Amino acid sequence: MSVEEELQQLRKQVQRLQDRQDILDCIQRESRARDRQDVDQINSCWWVDGVDEHGPVITKVPDYAARANAGHRGSFHMTSHNITNHLCEIDGDTAYCESYVIGGLFWKDSGKTTLACGRYLDQLEKRDGQWRMHTRKCTIEMSIDGNGDWVFSVPVKGFLKARWDGEDPSYERPFVANTEGLRW
Fold first, then answer.
1. Cβ(122)–Cβ(97) below 8 Å
2. Can you tell me the mean pLDDT for 19-31?
3. Confidence band of 46 (pLDDT split at 50, 70, 90)
4. How many Cβ atoms are within 10 Å of 69's Cβ, its own excluded?
5. For the domain 3-154, what is the CATH code?
6. What is residue 65's three-state secondary structure?
7. What are the residue ranges spanned by the domains of the chain?
8. Per-residue confidence at 111, pLDDT binned at 50, 70, 90?
């Protein structure tokens, strides 16, 4: 193999790795944005002609962020979407992904917390050099309910609380250790 052929092969491998990382970053960023109720960040992860299927409800992207946020806000104090196993098949400028998700749901009407396990089946498209989601199908496979009162216990007293707005500590720059902010 010539140096030029080897360099060309290396370029393709690096581009594939970059695409794969950009795809995973997009999926994770969208989950984080939903946990922060950040409409702008949610929308930045989707193409405007995209569509989300959550159970029997299919929502087009212009309405998706507001609808998802309202659903979470209506039922939960807080949510936590955790992406675990991630498979990604890239076919040109289209990617087909299966990402396992564990969703933590802290219910408003009780001290109950639900952990739900499922998968996101996502189709992403690369347009103008940027990967975004176009289609999502969501599965639910199991759940477990537990008492969520631990967050009100003495060992947790003083820990930062998550927020559903731009005041969440994750938006601060730079991160500075202090005892300010919304606390348990």
1. yes
2. 98
3. very high
4. 18
5. 3.10.450.50
6. helix
7. 3-154
8. confident
